[in-house]
Amino acid sequence: MKKLSEKQLTILSFIEEFIDENDYPPSIRDIQNGCDISSTSVVSYNLDRLKESGYLNRHSEVSRGLSLQRDSVEVEIDTVAVPLLGTIAAGAPFPMPENDTWSDLSGSELIDLPQAITGTGEGVYALKVRGESMIDALISDGDLVIMEQAASVRNGQMAAVRIKSDNTTTLKHFYSEGPRTRLEPANSQIAAMTFRSEDIEVLSRVVAVWRYMG
Amino acid sequence: MKKLSEKQLTILSFIEEFIDENDYPPSIRDIQNGCDISSTSVVSYNLDRLKESGYLNRHSEVSRGLSLQRDSVEVEIDTVAVPLLGTIAAGAPFPMPENDTWSDLSGSELIDLPQAITGTGEGVYALKVRGESMIDALISDGDLVIMEQAASVRNGQMAAVRIKSDNTTTLKHFYSEGPRTRLEPANSQIAAMTFRSEDIEVLSRVVAVWRYMG
DNA sequence: TAATTTTCAGAACATTAGTGCGAATACAGA
DNA sequence: TCTGTATTCGCACTAATGTTCTGAAAATTA
Hints:
2 copies of one chain form a homodimer.
Chain A: H1 6-22, H2 28-34, H3 40-52, E1 56-58, E2 66-68, E3 79-89, H4 99-103, E4 109-114, H5 115-118, E5 124-130, E6 144-149, E7 158-163, E8 168-177, E9 180-184, E10 193-196, E11 200-212
Parallel strand pairs in A: 3-5
Antiparallel strand pairs in A: 1-2, 3-4, 5-6, 6-11, 7-8, 7-11, 8-9, 9-10
The structure holds a DNA duplex.
C-alpha cells in the first residue's frame, strides 16, 4: 500500500477513535474539526486518497458513509457463545437441547469459545460435570464438556451414549462394529466394553473438554 | 425491558443487518424503505420508543446517529493469545519461557483463550502433552495444558513441580505442609505422595486443561 | 529554475437526512 | 359508546452533510 501523509494518518486514526467512541462514523465536518483542518474539501480530498490507498471505504452521497477497511493483519478471533445447559452426573437424566428450547436460551449462561471449535455454534452446547463418575473418560468434577448434537458419530470419536438396558449415560469413545458397538474409555488402562448395537443410543458428540482450576 | 411491537422488532433487526452490511448506520429514510414504512415520522417515532426501551442509542441532529445498545446477553469476550511453547512428556525436560524468550515469540504458535482465564496473558503459556504419563492427573496425550509462571502456588492448586531427587517433572495438586510437601493426583483414586519440601521445585501453576477432539 | 503534480482554501451549492406538527387512525379501558 | 392514549400519515421545514469549483500554495520532479 502507498505510504500516507501525516495528515492522512491523523484522519485515519481520528476516524478509528470516533467510531470506537460513537459507534457511527464521523461526518466530513467532524473530521475537519477533530483534526484541525481548514476546509471540508481538504478532508474530502484526503478521504479519496485514503480510499485509493485501500485504507478506507467511502460511499459517496451518503452522510457518514465511511468505514475502515478491515486490516487483514489484525486478526479478529471470532468467538461463538454456546449455552451451558446444565450439569451431567452419573446416572442422572442427560440434559439435551430440545427444538423449542433453542429459541429460548435467555436463561442459560453462555460460554464463549473460539469459532474454530464450535463452527457456527449450531447445536453446540456445554454441560458441567458433577461428580467423579466419568473419571475413566479422564473427566472429573467441575469439568466443562462441550458437546455437539450429532446425527452420526464416526468411529473413534467420543460421544455421549445411552446404554438402554442399563438406562445409564456415559462418555466413551465410540466404535461401531456392525451388530456390535464397542465403547472404550479414554483411559486406555481400562478395558473396553462391547454391546449390542441396538442397545446403544448416541446422544451427542463430545467436541472438547475444558478444565479450569483458577 | 418493555416488549416491542412487531414494527419495532423489524426496525431493530433491519438496523442490525444494515450496519452489518455497510459498517455505518442507516438513515431514517433507509429504514423507511427497508421496512416498508409509510412515513419518516413513523420511523422517528419508533426509534424514540426503541431508545426509551433501551435497545438503541440515538443522537439527535446527527444523521445516521444510531447505534445498537450492546445487548448484555451478547457478551463480547476478549481473547488473549498465549504462546504454545512446546510439548511436555514424561521425564523430558520441562519447557519454560525464559525472559529473553518472551520478547521473541514470533515463531511459536498462538492460542486464543478467553481473558477471564488468562488475565492479561502475562506469563501464561501453553504446552501440548505427549504420551500418557500424566494419566493420573486426568491428562492424556494431545491435551493442551495452560500454565502460568507462578511465584507461588497455593495449597490445592495444580502445579508443574520438579522432584529434584528423581529429576522428574509432573503435574500434581500441591500441598505445602511445612517441612514436607504432599503431591496429590487429580484422580483421587490414586494415593498421594509426600516429599521433603527441599526436594520439590514449583515450576508453574496449571490454570486449565483443554482437550479437543475435533 | 521551470514545469508538473499534489495538496490546500474558501465558499457556494446540492442532497441527504432529521424534525415538527396538525390531522387521521387504531386501540384499550371505563 | 365514549374517551384518552398510542401510533400513523403526509408534508413542509430546517439542519446536517457531501460535492464542486476556482485559484493558489506547497511539494516534487526534471
